[in-house]
Amino acid sequence: MTLERRFVGASVYGLRMPIIQQGDDIAEMISDTLIDAGCSSYQPIELNNRDILGITESFLARSQGNYITLDDIADDVTDKFPEGDVAVAFPILSRNRFAKVLEGIAKGVKGKVYVCLSYPADEVGNALMDEDDLYRLNINPYADILTKNEFRNKIGTYLHPITKTDYLELYQNISDKIEIVLLNNPKDILKFTNQIIVASIHSRYRHKKMLSDLGANVITLEEICCTPAESHGWSEFGLLGSNYADSNRLKLFPRDAESFCNHLQKLILAKTGKTIEVMIYGDGGFKCPKTKIWEFADPVVSPGYTSGLKGMPNEVKIKAVADNHTKNSLEAVKEAIEEKKKGDESYALGTTPRQITDLVGSLCDLTTGSGDKGTPVVLIKGYFDDYLKGIPTE
Q: Are residues 162 and 141 in contact, defined by beta-carbon separation less than 8 angstroms?
């Protein structure tokens, strides 16, 4: 018997959801939408075991009412640093990601706030200056400390190439307590104060350890608004992953994301009989080659996911197998995939070693975008399929 060849591999669907409010049962809403999508006359979707469902972090956080005010930030900062000057080390350059965080911090600090910016760009690639100016002006970014005035004298005014924002001016104007300093060596921060809030995202643990080892009193953004509170929101990630909500509020990264994923997985199984994988996703882990900006301002791609998404893919590099066998290429690929299923990983040479959640979360983020598509939920089908599921066996 000749079986029909399967031409479609992994496929991705953005699912349109209602506009939600705090307290909405989004697990019920999402599971019902999946069922409705399967019955739709327009592109009906059949749900299968091991499909993947991604929910954007803001959808969960909004349903939780996970918001804080600038006063909430200020109160927590004052509790941790009751007196004196405080340095804020290596924040990213962002209007919606950090400007309001800095405003809240400044409200809580009693003395000066030294905002220590890395240069020529921040941790995720937002430029503070033209990198070529380092060479043209003989600036050593590993040794030279620049005040805002020294930067102006050497560089002048630099506008971010995408947002057209002068971040030195933006951060300076947040509070008269703020003094801008440009440096890259964490040790140099101690020349200004030994009370430090590490605001870097992906380097936060290293920066905290370096400064703590030198005797500084150090916390990270992860340690602000990170404990349960009745009067306001909170997150295990503290202020990391927070985002602008309005002039006085920030939306935090969602809390208890893994528990939500497990609950939704069980709910979908009860309603459909299918076991699918569920994850919450934020920023994808990818970099724009033109702007050099790394689109990853969240602390993790996925703060919570079901167990089937743990680990890294174990895949066969098909082109390498096909290029390095004397036998029929199709038969060589089939043999390699079968050997992989037995535990032979030798054919994985050359595949990119990334976590499944980072890969899938990036795919979800690209699908949803950050605009008006209205698809905060993404369904991915066939992601765990391999080539053998696409060709007839007899």
A: no
Q: Which one-letter amino acid corresponds to residue 225? A: C
* CATH 3.30.1330.100 boundaries in the chain: 11-65+256-313+354-390
Q: Kind of pairing, strands 217-220 and 146-147?
A: unpaired
Q: What are phi and psi of 165, to 5 degrees?
A: -105, 140
Contact in structure between 283 and 272 (CB atoms under 8 Å): no
pLDDT exceeds cutoff 70 at 123: yes
Q: What integer pLDDT is reported at residue 1 of this predicted model?
A: 46
Q: Where are the alpha helices (DSSP H) in the chain?
A: 26-39, 57-64, 70-80, 100-108, 132-136, 148-154, 167-172, 204-213, 257-272, 318-323, 329-341, 356-368
The pLDDT, as a whole number, for residue 271 is 95
Strand pairing report for 178-182 and 146-147: antiparallel
Residue 157 carries which side chain, given as an amino acid letter?
T
Percent of the chain scoring above 70 in pLDDT: 86
- If DSSP codes are grouped into helix, strand and coil, which group holds residue 14? strand
- Mapped onto helix, strand or coil, the DSSP state of residue 171 is helix
How large is the average pLDDT for residues 128-151? 94
pTM for this prediction? 0.88
CA quadruple 298, 300, 304, 309: dihedral positive or negative?
A: positive
Query: Of 364, 235, 244, 247, nearest to 309 (Cα)?
Result: 364
CATH fold, domain 11-65+256-313+354-390, is 60s Ribosomal Protein L30; Chain: A; (3.30.1330)
- Helices marked H in 20-119: 26-39, 57-64, 70-80, 100-108
Residue partners of 364: CB distance under 8 A and separation at least 6:
54, 56, 279, 281, 284, 378, 380
